[in-house]
């Protein structure tokens, strides 16, 4: 049957995990509601039970974990603003103690970047940035085929670059961070915070608990207020990515997550605003790609590759 690796993607809303072989095939995949788990041990025990029930325990050789504010060097989640578990969490050690195999942790967006490079829409690239548009906004920066970690493991926090002076309050405690505008959560905030002539007639106002997908669907159905929200979201993201290009001059930005799944139209809008605002030396050099791994979770594959790349 062969060895397998457990890839775990811890998100602010859900935790996805799956069993991956060396060829990058996801043998089985599962989802847990992160909000229903009171502490990290509850997560680990739930995954442990599923691993036993699925019969994968004897084949498991390691665990790769992607998590918000996950530090590759320490194996700890450190003060993640979009998780209910606060403070410093030694997640890699907790997994290792429970499963008895090697466990490696990195930032969830870094894991997604590895997945895209090894198995997805960035296999032809050595210089790119993944932008994960979920509960928050994550980014994984690849330069010359290697992840950029910085001296302390926290490089590439594009979601917490402030783009609007004195703007929306962020979970990190500061104001105006990019993720407060262009993440799924940011899109929902725009429904109540934006005021336009078309707002009063929008179907979005009749939804008790709207989701970002509702905004995109309403836009497709002709809702002008929803269309304005999406346009402004694309403008903020495209303009920000134009500035961020000065850091690593990527060949492409690869969009991943629920908002990216809305389709090529949103990616084209982001590309349009990127070109409007970018420095001349970078014009028409940077692609906006959509992840091809939405059906096969890029973060799971990337997390698993943390183990596989050391055993090749």
- Helical stretch tally: 9
Order of strands, main sheet, comes to 3-2-1-4-8
CATH topology of the largest domain, which one?
Nucleotidyltransferase, domain 5
Radius of gyration, Cα only, in angstroms?
19 Å
Please, how many domains? 2
Basic shape: globular
Could you walk me through the main structural features you see in this protein, from its secondary elements to its overall organization?
The protein has 312 residues and is α/β, with parallel strands linked by helices. The strands form three sheets. A five-stranded mixed sheet has the order 3-2-1-4-8. 35% of the residues lie in helices and 21% in strands. The protein folds into two domains: 4-114 and 296-308, ATPase, nucleotide binding domain (Nucleotidyltransferase, domain 5); 125-290, Nucleotidyltransferase, domain 5 (2-Layer Sandwich), CATH 3.30.420. It contains nine helices and 13 strands. Helix 6 packs across helix 7. It has helices at 40-54, 91-99, 108-119, 179-182, 184-193, 212-220, 224-248, 264-277, 298-308, and strands at residues 4-10, 14-20, 26-33, 60-67, 70-71, 76-78, 88-89, 102-107, 128-133, 137-143, 146-147, 252-256, 287-290.
Which secondary structure elements does this structure contain, and how are they paired or packed?
Elements: E1 4-10, E2 14-20, E3 26-33, H1 40-54, E4 60-67, E5 70-71, E6 76-78, E7 88-89, H2 91-99, E8 102-107, H3 108-119, E9 128-133, E10 137-143, E11 146-147, H4 179-182, H5 184-193, H6 212-220, H7 224-248, E12 252-256, H8 264-277, E13 287-290, H9 298-308
Parallel strand pairs: 1-4, 4-8, 9-12, 12-13
Antiparallel strand pairs: 1-2, 2-3, 5-6, 6-7, 9-10, 10-11
């Amino acid at each position: 049957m062969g060895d397998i690796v457990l890839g775990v993607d811890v998100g602010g809303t859900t935790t996805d995990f799956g069993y991956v072989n060396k060829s990058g095939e996801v043998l089985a995949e599962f989802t847990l509601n992160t909000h229903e788990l009171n502490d990290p041990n509850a997560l680990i025990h739930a995954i442990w039970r599923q691993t036993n029930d699925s019969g994968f325990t004897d084949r498991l050789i390691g665990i790769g974990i992607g998590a918000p504010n996950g530090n590759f060097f320490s194996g700890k989640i450190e003060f993640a603003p979009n998780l209910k578990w606060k403070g410093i969490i030694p997640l890699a050690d907790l997994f290792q103690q429970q499963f008895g195999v090697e466990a490696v942790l990195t930032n969830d967006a870094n894991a997604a970047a590895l997945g895209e490079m090894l198995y997805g829409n960035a296999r032809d690239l050595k210089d790119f940035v993944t932008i994960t548009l979920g509960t928050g906004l994550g980014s994984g920066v690849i330069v010359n085929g290697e992840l950029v970690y910085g001296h302390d493991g926290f490089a590439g926090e594009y979601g917490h670059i402030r783009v609007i002076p004195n703007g929306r309050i962020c979970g990190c405690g500061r104001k105006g961070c990019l993720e407060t505008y262009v993440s799924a959560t940011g899109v929902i905030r725009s429904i109540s915070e934006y005021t336009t002539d078309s707002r009063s007639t929008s179907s979005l106002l009749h939804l008790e608990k709207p989701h970002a997908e509702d905004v995109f669907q309403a836009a497709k159905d002709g809702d002008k207020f929803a269309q304005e929200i999406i346009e402004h979201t694309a403008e903020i993201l495209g303009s920000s990515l134009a500035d961020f290009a000065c850091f690593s001059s990527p060949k492409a930005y690869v969009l991943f997550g629920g908002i990216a799944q809305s389709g090529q139209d949103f990616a084209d809008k982001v590309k349009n605003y990127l070109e409007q605002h970018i420095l001349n030396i970078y014009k028409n050099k940077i692609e906006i790609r959509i992840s091809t791994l939405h059906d096969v979770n890029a973060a799971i594959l990337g997390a698993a590759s943390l183990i596989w790349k050391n055993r090749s």
